[in-house]
């Protein structure tokens, strides 16, 4: 392993952690990072002293608060989350649905915010989770606005099927992406979670690009999305205005006013 730099080994240690591996023993870190126990012991010790890792009472290690502090400096991470949160919270309260804010990272969407509902469709989503682009509302929106070369690369890869309704045909997915660009909204039914209806829209930045995708996931009662696309579009416009204000930019197109988000008129059937 002499060709691996010290920095790459540190990254390997941090990369051993994930949504399904939030707390690890020293040996588990070494095994997942592909490092010897002695090297793992030294790096984990250095990271713990710096605050990048924390050791629990059971002796297992987890990500430390120092990394949370650094992540707050990322404009597409906690910075975006902080600006958008009041509007996401309004949407969550108005719909009692699962609200997600995601950004594109490679071939996946990463949730920078996830507000889960106890009353709506049961979904497994947390801040920092990574999900496939083709089977999620946020991912579909981000892929629809991605560089064509990146779209080609994503659709050329094996596409996972998560339910019987997951669309994995590249040709049909291209048709869907074109519809999303035309209509400004993605609507997916049960493609990642059975019985769930996902509605997603883009969140534009102050330059007119797509900074993130906003989605709402509710129980699919078969009646269609109703007023949800318009509601999400209004909330996304408010987030855009907040981004413009934070960046001291000027609006680059029409935006929605500051009318409070009201509860949807048609009660949502929840599971």
UniProtKB/TrEMBL annotation:
Keywords: DNA-binding, Transcription, Transcription regulation. InterPro entries: GAF-like_dom_sf, HTH_MetabolicPath_Reg, Tscrpt_reg_IclR_C, Tscrpt_reg_IclR_N, WH-like_DNA-bd_sf, WH_DNA-bd_sf. The keyword Ribonucleoprotein does not apply. Residues 66-245 form the IclR-ED domain. Residues 4-65 form the HTH iclR-type domain. Coiled coil: none annotated. It comes from the Bacteria. GO terms for biological process: negative regulation of DNA-templated transcription. Residues 248-271 are annotated as: Disordered. One of its GO terms (molecular function) is DNA-binding transcription factor activity. This is DNA-binding IclR family transcriptional regulator. It comes from Actinomycetospora corticicola.
């Amino acid at each position: 392993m002499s060709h691996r730099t010290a920095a790459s080994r540190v990254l390997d240690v941090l990369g051993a952690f994930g949504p399904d591996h939030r707390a690890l023993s020293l040996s588990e870190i070494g095994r997942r990072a592909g490092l010897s126990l002695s090297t793992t012991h030294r790096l984990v010790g250095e990271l713990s002293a710096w605050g990048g890792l924390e050791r629990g009472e059971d002796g297992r290690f987890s990500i430390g608060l120092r990394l949370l502090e650094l992540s707050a400096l990322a404009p597409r991470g906690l910075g975006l989350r902080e600006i958008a949160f009041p509007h996401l919270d309004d949407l969550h309260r108005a719909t009692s649905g699962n609200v997600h804010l995601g950004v594109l990272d490679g071939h996946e969407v990463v949730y920078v915010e996830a507000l889960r509902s106890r009353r709506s469709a049961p979904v497994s989503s947390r801040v920092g989770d990574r999900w496939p682009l083709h089977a999620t509302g946020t991912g579909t929106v981000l892929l629809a606005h991605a560089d064509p070369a990146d779209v080609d690369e994503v659709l050329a890869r094996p596409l996972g099927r998560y339910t019987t309704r997951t669309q994995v045909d590249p040709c049909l997915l291209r048709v869907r992406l074109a519809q999303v660009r035309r209509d400004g909204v993605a609507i997916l039914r049960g493609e990642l979670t059975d019985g769930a209806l996902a509605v997603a829209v883009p969140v534009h930045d102050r330059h007119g690009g797509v900074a993130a995708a906003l989605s709402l996931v509710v129980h699919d009662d078969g009646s269609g999305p109703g007023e949800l696309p318009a509601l999400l579009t209004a909330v996304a416009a408010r987030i855009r205005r907040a981004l413009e204000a934070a960046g001291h930019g000027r609006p680059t197109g029409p935006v929605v006013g500051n009318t409070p988000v009201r509860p949807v008129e048609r009660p949502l059937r929840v599971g």
